[in-house]
Amino acid sequence: MNLTLKIWRQKDSKAKGQMVDYKVTDISEHMSFLEMMDVLNEQLVNSGEEPVAFDHDCREGICGMCSMHINGEAHGPDRGITTCQLHMRMFKDGDTITIEPWRATAFPVIKDLVVDRTAFERIQQAGGYISVNTSGNTQDANSIPISKHAADEAMDAATCIGCGACVASCKNSSAMLFVGAKVSQYALLPQGQVEAADRVRNMVEQMDKEGFGNCTNTGACEVECPKGISLENIARMNREYLAATFKG
Amino acid sequence: MALDSKVPKGSIKDKWTDYKNNINLVNPANKRHIDVIVVGTGLAGGSAAATLAELGYNVKAFAYQDSPRRAHSIAAQGGINAAKNYQGDGDSTYRLFYDTVKGGDYRSREANVYRLAEVSANIIDQCVAQGVPFARDYGGLLDNRSFGGVLVSRTFYAKGQTGQQLLLGAYSAMNRQIARGKIEMFNRHEMLDVVVVDGKARGIIARNLITGEIERHSAHAVVVGSGGYGNVYFLSTNAMGSNATAAWKIHKKGAYFANPCYTQIHPTCIPRSGDYQSKLTLMSESLRNDGRIWVPKNMEDVMAIREGRKKPTDLSEDERDYYLERRYPAFGNLVPRDVASRAAKERCDAGYGVNATGEAVYLDFASAFERYGKEQAKIHNIQNPSPAKIKELGQAIVEAKYGNLFQMYEKIVDQNPYETPMMIYPAVHYTMGGVWVDYNLMTTIPGCYCIGEANFSDHGANRLGASALMQGLADGYFVLPYTIGDYLSSDIRTGAISTDSKEFEEAEKEVTERINFFVNNKGTKSVDYFHKKLGKVMWDKAGMSRNAKGLTEAMAEIKAIREEFWKEVSVPGTADEMNPELEKAGRVADFLELGELFAKDALMRAESCGGHFREESAELDGPQKGEAKRNDKDFAFVAAWEYKGEPADAVLHKEELEFKDIELKQRSYK
Known about the structure:
Chain A is of the alpha+beta class.
């Protein structure tokens, strides 16, 4: 198929960006979206132009690097996938595809489609861990039975890949789905209880400092999340936060 | 220089304990004055960085990704082995040790493997304490599954995302130390050289991938945990950015590179679909617990399927050739990876491949649906369930176990694997070879350590499933933090290492000159052009089966590609900005050297062992006909190569392998 691409080009974080049109031809429907971008970039390199910078790495939907806003949707039109898992069979010959970076104050553009997501790093550093040193003397892994239900629910929250699609999809650029998932994973497990109050307080405080917006329950984040992280995690974080406030 | 593996004396069971009791320690007050650089933040690098910082060292950690959490360990699916014997099925430290040495086709160092098995149980305890949500059964205890090449269930897992969960565990431990200031994290930085001062590794040169700035970083020791070199094939299951540059740079500065020809071709990957393909996707080995591998028995059926006249589900049981069950009745579909891959290649080479390219076999879950469905019907007391009900109940169980993998398959191939068998074919996945290290995990450069997939030490010529995660975390959490202390104990009076020395200056100059060459070369061909060309030679001549003629040609061809690369490569953009093409150019330049050494090593090793199959060395008759033939008399050694300029001139050093605790015998899975 032949396509027109409208892509955000921006030289660096200080430059003013703009949408630029490109044409690609003979695109196979079996290609992944990023393979289509490879074709474009090969074309640009061969004509001596600078290729489009975009983040990507594992190309199997787990590392969370890839981050394109395609036709107004984070990770494009398909559900439950990252950009690297989007296939060209979702498009048809003659389509015009708009490709933008994640847009959020807390995610400044570094170059073209690459954004700076280190705000997520700082939120996790504020409390996204259990304080246990590596010793080889921790108690036996089976010494605390954990109900299958709780373990599975913690796992569901823990599958978040930290891509930032939730922020990019939210009209308020809220990071509450991301933070809620991390808070939930530990809140659901007995190991996480000891530091639960401090954790949620510190992570929420850092989230606010980074300039993410608030949640107004529209649920766009849940729809666009490639890993199906549920809104329940935001509710749980709010409960945990409220409880932590009362604990003083 | 003679290779000294520094394996402690004593019985294999006591070596590690005695070693720990007798090494020098660094007191906490002194640790505060010692800096350690860790390159790579996957399971090995991430766990090492966190643990060293917990101990009190000042750690500087480097990742080319925008977060340590994105290192490619994240993509490991199936699980992590540990000799916990929670299932009471006869597992033990010795058995894990034995399975790993046998699985590696008797080409690994016994003492290292025993230590790995010994610390494996601690890893699970540590990860659970960190909040890693491993799968549990209804009693709340940890669940296990089985992997290829073993007869017990010792694999712990978190759905099909075990690597992700373990890495997030190590990452959370890192975050705690980053918050305390004990780890200084350098995201989007790439190590481009190691700096050796007075014979010791004392720092690195790194490039800031956002600004292009070249930076000097000093430390008392350098730890490289940068992963494997599978991308030398261009197409592999590795991440796009996975590269050998850090490992290759230390090789060029004096670290020997061991057994580069030991590469794991993983049997269950999604087949390639076209020339535009950028990478291959793995379908976890855990699927072989429940999936059965087959091709049609009759060529007419193969043709009918390829032409779309028949569907695989149309074939009756006796029209199918479950070739692994046929050839290896004892292990069946759970033979080790090298064996399963070669068997798939054998069927496809014989013309039985089931897709248009002739390079695919089926992985079929129909009998698992039925088995689980019947069991569920019993559990739920459903009398006389219809076949449809059985299938439905069975599919729900399979979905709970492997749902994310089935979804991944459907998204890529556009076929529903619940309704039609998956198509799979082997693909490059893991490299057992790597930087040579002694028992302390130190390379032949004093003060330079190498951990995880980047080193050669534990898997011999073939790695068993679910052992990579085990090794990465064993090295980082439980081995390196001890061994590095012994070395650093002599550095307590050294003080901070200056970056103003001539050694740093020279290393920086070399790095800068190379970068300037790339951006100024203005050649005619893209970096990918050369990478793909290299990959094709590697796959065709140093892939699943190899012979002397092909390997000799490969060496010459790779050299020619390298020469063309340095003339014709084109890198747009400048050096002082984010420039992904420039990053790739440096990595491919290193692969173009590594590839040739790889072929040279494969040519030298005129035996078949594990993932290295030499056509000249196969069993010609008897019950093992067609299987790989090892030659212990001439090749029971580690091949450690010393850099001497051109890869073809590399000098071979042999570390003879001694097997005192395991009898050397033919590896049989029949």
